[in-house]
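Annex B. Sample input.
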Amino acid sequence: MPGAFGQARAFPLSPLLGYVPMLALQVVTTAFAEEPGWRDFALPRLQRARGPVLGTVVPGLLWGWHLPLFLSAWGDYPRASPLQPVVFVGGCVPLSLVMTCVFNLARQSVPVVMLLHASINTTYTLVWPVMFPAVSAAGLGYTVQLVAATLVTLVLLVATRGRRGLAAAQGGSRA
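Annex B, continued. Sample output.
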């Protein structure tokens, strides 16, 4: 993002001190509440019916259930751009694709994907605003998430030939 790295700061010790407690809280309050439904229940069924990519787009779009939060302080209401919810959901789809790849490569381990989900949330909450204050202040965090998750997804799509690690989840090779 323009100007983001010019305003970047060295990583201070304070977020590290809060990282593990916040991670534990995120596992219990967010990851445990969401991932058993998204990854353990819905994703294997959707992957069987629609394949690993299309089967993942559905939960990615359904993460739009967070949209009412944009009418609260969580979504920086009323200062936030009206485009932020759109960018958020747009970023959820490639992020969901990354999480599916991890889920499948971990042989559909829900605890692994719960830890990933909680780690993303914790980093986004504690580390990101401290290291990139200009991006956070400008409300561009979701845009960065969209760009970064899309780039990682493209690499994973090429590396897994679109299978998102599904063969590993089914006991085959790790393609």
